[in-house]
Write a structure and sequence with these properties.
- The chain has helices at 16-27, 49-54, 56-74, 90-114, 172-175, 192-203, 223-235, 328-342, 371-376, 392-396, 425-437, 442-446, 457-465; strands at 5-12, 32-36, 118-127, 131-136, 141-151, 155-157, 169-170, 184-188, 207-212, 239-242, 245-252, 255-262, 265-271, 273-276, 280-282, 315-317, 356-358, 363-368, 381-387, 403-409, 415-422.
- The relative contact order is 0.12.
- The longest helix is centred in the first third of the chain and has 25 residues, at 90-114.
- With 475 residues, the chain is an alpha/beta fold.
- It has three domains: 5-157 and 281-351, FAD/NAD(P)-binding domain (3-Layer(bba) Sandwich); 169-278, FAD/NAD(P)-binding domain; 362-465, FAD/NAD-linked reductase, C-terminal dimerisation domain (Enolase-like, domain 1, 2-Layer Sandwich).
- A hairpin with a 5-residue loop joins strand 20 and strand 21 (415-422).
Amino acid sequence: MSEQQNFDVVVIGAGPAGYHAAIRAAQLGLKTACIDAALGKDGKPALGGTCLRVGCIPSKALLDSSRQFWNLGHIFGEHGISTKDAKIDVPTMIGRKDKIVKQFTGGIAMLFKANKVTTFYGFGQLQPGNVVKVKQHDGTEVELKGTNVIIAAGSDSIELPFAKFGEHIVDNIGALDFEAVPKRLGVIGAGVIGLELGSVWNRLGSQVTILEALPNFLAAADAEVAKVSAREFKKQNLDIRLGAKVSKAEVKKDGVHVTYTDDKGEQAIVVDKLLVSVGRRAATKGLLADGTGVKVDARGMIEVDEHCHTGVDGVWAVGDCVRGPMLAHKGFEEGIAVAELIAGLPGHVNLDTIPWVIYTEPEIAWVGKTEEQLKAEGIPYKAGSFPFAAVGRAVAMAEPAGFVKVLAHAETDTVLGMHLVGANVSELVHEGVLTMEFKGSADDLARICHAHPSMSEAVHDAAMAVHKRSIHKAN
């Protein structure tokens, strides 16, 4: 083993949380190293974590390709645009996705170089005394000593014991790389990954059946948002079956035989491919050597305080491997906050204003509390909503589905939540995030001038509707 190398900050993992932490630490003048074990499809190191390689970015590339194809057959006619015998070339679509992934993973490498972050490619394990042992891909080992160590190990797909991943049963990685449109696609789990990747292949012509164990659709979202979303997905022929608990998945000659139980008893379907999207778990296996003092809970999550500190001097953890939502942008903020805390600056992440987005058509987004949560917590509130069907821009775009809802405290008028379903609401939700961060009121939002015609007018009118003064609908 080579001589131990010393750094101010050693980051384990170059996903969203890790690469943000490394770059920010380097910007602040700290000597920084970042370790990452991932390889791209070409077998070469690829920075950026699950998000850039096999998550957020590639899924959005496929969602956009499939959306273009769907619109060609379902919406272009409304505009007077006619086409004949439109076809999708799946290898070309996958190739475009791979090119985008390579662009962004390569971009992280360039940013590391520009910010003088030293990169090590291999698996890093934390030892006692803030030492990280790295087994590099070339077979050699190096030891890095960090005044501070930031663990950003990320997360992995949960594999079901009766549905092991392979050629026919896949996780998100496999579902991003189908060589052709499966005639029948089964999906276990109607969460973000299941809905997004189910939508991709459904738009391209696959018969998609989504099996969700919970009795309610999108239980984490606002009930009205979930109801409108379910209605739109039904129009798109997405077959979503609730209260469907899968017990068996067997690969046979004619496909994958999936057995599940619902309120009618035992049921079975046969599909060509089965996507398992039942959640993710912290990727902490083998990460901590004995004696580090870092605590891990029953689910494999690293235990931290509100500042992402593990309780072991100089050891921090951020992103998917700690409490809070497993979202790339939450990891971004934690990585930056910890780098700033290490440098002696104030660093803080407000988990109450993290936006959630599902990139289906229509998109689903929210921030803050739902009506159901406010009722359960006994918080008095007022609600105002406004439909996109009454927004000129939405109708002109042939995207009238959905609405915006603003929830405000009944006494102080402080915005407590915003819930949206519709076209491009992944962008609009940030009006709610910003208002909540500044402790703004529904009246504040209602008095801000919004461009006309724009999709954002639905936010404006929803805020006005909180006080029953919406102009464009009956209050």
